[in-house]
Design a protein that fits this description.
Distance between the termini: 33 Å
Protein name: DUF8009 domain-containing protein
Helix content: 25-40%
Number of domains: 1
Number of helices: 6
Largest sheet: 4 strands, mixed
Shape: elongated
Pfam family, one: DUF8009
Radius of gyration: 18 Å
Structural class: alpha/beta
Strand order of the largest sheet: 3-1-7-6
Organism: Natrinema halophilum
């Protein structure tokens, strides 16, 4: 592995809290996965950007994918408002208006969750490398 392709060189990862929250929501609400992606060449300070995929190409690209759930505080991740909760809490109303109201309440709950998630980015994450796990600092941008 070339030195600039070695993720152990990474000391800190800069990311947008909005990207982290959006990536988490995307993966929960849509097909496919959204991650925060760091691409080679690697150096001490790296920028992670949102990346959506259906096929993981990290073996081909050498990229490092950070799960958005790993950069958001655990208690906030656990409080994600699932649509199932909205359905269980709703009065049995299978009319189009009832379904629209459930979708609206769910969208509002997700938007409120995203606000909390943007404020709950962790300070340190662990990257998995060929040399084992490596802790790196998380820097918020934007």
């Amino acid at each position: 592995m070339a030195e600039n392709d070695d993720p152990t060189a990474i000391r800190s990862v800069a990311l947008s809290p909005e990207d982290a929250a959006d990536a988490y929501v995307y993966s929960r609400e849509n097909p496919g996965d959204a991650v925060l992606r760091v691409t080679p060449p690697f150096h001490g300070r790296m920028r992670a950007r949102i990346h959506v995929y259906r096929v993981d190409d990290t073996e081909l690209t050498g990229a490092v994918h950070l799960s958005p759930g790993d950069v958001i505080a655990d208690e906030v991740v656990a409080a994600y408002p699932g649509l199932e909760t909205e359905l269980a809490d709703s009065v049995e109303d299978d009319t189009p208006d009832g379904a629209d109201e459930i979708r609206k309440r769910h969208a509002e709950a997700v938007a409120e969750w995203q606000d909390r998630a943007r404020e709950s980015i962790v300070d340190v994450i662990t990257l998995e490398t060929d040399d084992g796990p490596r802790e790196v600092d998380v820097k918020r941008i934007g």
